[in-house]
Specification:
Layout: E1 3-5, H1 19-35, E2 43-44, H2 51-54, H3 60-67, H4 73-79, H5 85-108, E3 110-113, H6 134-144, E4 151-155, H7 162-167, E5 174-181, E6 194-198, H8 204-222, E7 226-230, H9 248-264, E8 269-272, H10 281-299
Parallel strand pairs: 1-2, 1-3, 3-8, 4-5, 4-7, 5-6, 7-8
GO molecular function: histone deacetylase activity; hydrolase activity
Keywords: Hydrolase
Family: Belongs to the histone deacetylase family.
């Protein structure tokens, strides 16, 4: 059975101006349940992740400032919203949800976190709505417990996975592949194992062609036995922050290319949802739901 991490805190309300992006975390499971793609038993509710697991990836001083809610005003502005206890608990549950989903992926081939993909959080900073890097923490968790030997992180959010790149810059067991808008946030990029920067307004055919070529390179060079996939839908032409010009059909084909490759290679894959900021919430939810629909067709 395909398992999906979700918790009510995923849709935790933020100050005015930040609430809209959070709606998708409530609407995605509602839509999937309504249409019958999933049932309640597909969903599970994660507990908060433990401190020792966080400290395998994030520096102690940074974590303690998060934990104690003492992060400076400047560092909170870098994250993009004010820190509070509920927001921190949300992040802790998201991270444990990705860890739990990785276990389910090893057993079942694929598993999801409705939230996650917090790839801008580095070893000692938070940024771009990201406090802790859920997939990086989980990658270290798997390696430290000898549950996997080589990992490929496929990051197809429109923004570079700068935090993930920084965390694993000296770790040969983790191959980081980021395909992103070159002129988009973050404006100071880190160096991934394989970076594919894209010009503004890239459309379907060019994007998918580049993905096919570079995904093969990533698999060939990484030789993974576990895959993380960050499936942000901010690549859509309707996205307010994305600067690319993909149709919803191309976004779905992107997911199919990645998930089919994992299926064909018999590699477990954990999927976190990443960004999505289209003006119409229906575009965000439908594009994200397409990722689940594909997974249930391929792995279900």
């Amino acid at each position: 059975m395909i398992k999906i991490a979700w918790h009510p805190l995923y849709a935790h309300p933020l100050p005015e101006g930040h609430r809209f992006p959070m709606l998708k975390y409530e609407l995605i499971p509602e839509q999937l349940l309504h249409e019958g793609t999933i049932a309640q038993q597909n969903l599970f509710s994660p507990e908060p992740v433990s401190e020792d697991i966080i400290l395998s990836t994030h520096e102690k001083a940074y974590w303690e400032q998060l934990r104690d809610l003492t992060l400076s005003a400047k560092d909170q502005r870098r994250i993009g919203f004010p820190l509070n206890a509920q927001l921190l608990e949300r992040e802790l549950r998201i991270t444990q949800g990705t860890i739990d989903a990785a276990h389910f992926a090893i057993s079942n081939g694929i598993a999801f976190n409705v939230a996650g993909g917090t790839h801008h959080a580095g070893s000692n900073w938070g940024e771009g709505f990201c406090l802790l890097n859920d997939q990086s923490i989980t990658a270290n968790y798997l390696l430290n417990r000898n549950l996997t030997k080589r990992i490929l992180i496929i990051d197809l959010d429109v923004h570079q996975g700068n935090g993930t790149a920084e965390i694993f810059q000296n770790e040969p067991k983790v191959f980081t592949f980021s395909m992103h808008g070159e002129k988009n946030f973050p404006f100071r990029k880190e160096i991934s194992s394989l970076d594919v920067p894209l010009d503004d307004d890239v459309q379907d055919e060019e994007y998918l062609s580049s993905l096919n070529i570079n995904l093969k390179k990533a698999f060939d060079r990484a030789k993974p036995d576990f895959v993380f996939y960050l499936s942000g839908v901010d690549v859509l032409s309707t996205d307010k922050l994305g600067k690319l010009a993909l149709s919803k059909a191309a976004c779905k084909e992107r997911d199919k290319i990645v998930l089919q490759a994992c299926k064909d290679k018999n590699l477990p894959v954990q999927v976190s949802m990443g960004g999505g900021y289209s003006i119409d919430i229906k575009d965000i939810v439908d594009a994200h739901c397409n990722t689940y629909r594909l997974a249930f067709d391929l792995f279900g």
